[in-house]
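Page 37, continued from 36.
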């Protein structure tokens, strides 16, 4: 390389150093935390209970932590480094803008809210109907009524003899360590020849509820800059 070639290469190298990379830029991983509920049955509680030929089993909700990616886009001023950036959505000429897209990863706890799956096993010789049943929660010693819509699947259940069905009942939002009692009242277990109700049963379950801190390392924000059609 002669001295003239060296002189020419120097400004080109300096110019190249001023141009920002055209691809997405990823930040270093970060540690995030979230509170994850845990539900444990108390020793005196049996998951499955049978009364009068109707067996009801309840499954405690299992909460998990998942990574959730959210994206946001904003228009930014055009700079010299944007000349070589990619164009998207058919943007050409002056009918386009430069945007900066940021993808952030966060921790997401699922499911949302307190949901119990119950299995109803009809061992009777008659059709089981859940209409008339009432669900109530006891949170930390205080009775809490829930909207009928949160257990409508139970109220609308119709189960033929010697069949079973799964339904979900939802509880109130809880943000602290406490105890939970679940009561299902007025489950019809017997009727007379005329169809009149002659027997009802009540079911109850008790649980410890705790909020536990979970920490996890997630990818850092990813920032991409490109041209976009207006």
């Amino acid at each position: 390389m002669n001295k003239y070639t060296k002189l020419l290469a120097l400004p080109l190298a300096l110019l190249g150093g001023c141009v920002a990379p055209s691809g997405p830029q990823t930040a270093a991983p970060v540690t995030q935390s979230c509170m994850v509920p845990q539900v444990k049955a108390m020793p005196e509680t049996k998951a499955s209970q049978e009364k009068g030929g109707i067996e009801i089993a309840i499954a405690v909700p299992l909460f998990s932590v998942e990574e959730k990616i959210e994206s946001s886009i904003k228009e930014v001023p055009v700079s010299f480094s944007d000349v070589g950036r990619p164009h998207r959505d058919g943007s050409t000429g002056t009918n386009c803008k430069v945007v900066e897209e940021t993808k952030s990863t966060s921790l997401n706890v699922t499911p949302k809210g307190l949901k119990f799956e119950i299995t109803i096993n009809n061992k009777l010789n008659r059709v089981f109907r859940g209409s008339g049943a009432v669900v109530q929660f006891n949170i930390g010693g205080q009775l809490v009524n829930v909207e009928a819509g949160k257990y409508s699947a139970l109220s609308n259940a119709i189960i033929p003899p010697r069949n079973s069905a799964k339904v979900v009942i939802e509880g109130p939002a809880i943000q602290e360590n406490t105890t939970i009692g679940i009561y299902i009242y007025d489950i019809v277990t017997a009727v007379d020849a005329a169809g009149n109700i002659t027997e009802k049963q009540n079911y109850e379950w008790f649980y410890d509820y705790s909020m536990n801190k979970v920490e996890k390392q997630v990818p850092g924000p990813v920032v991409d800059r490109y041209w976009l059609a207006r």
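Confidence is low (pLDDT under 50) at residues 1-20. Flag for discussion at group meeting. The two ends are 47 Å apart (CA to CA).
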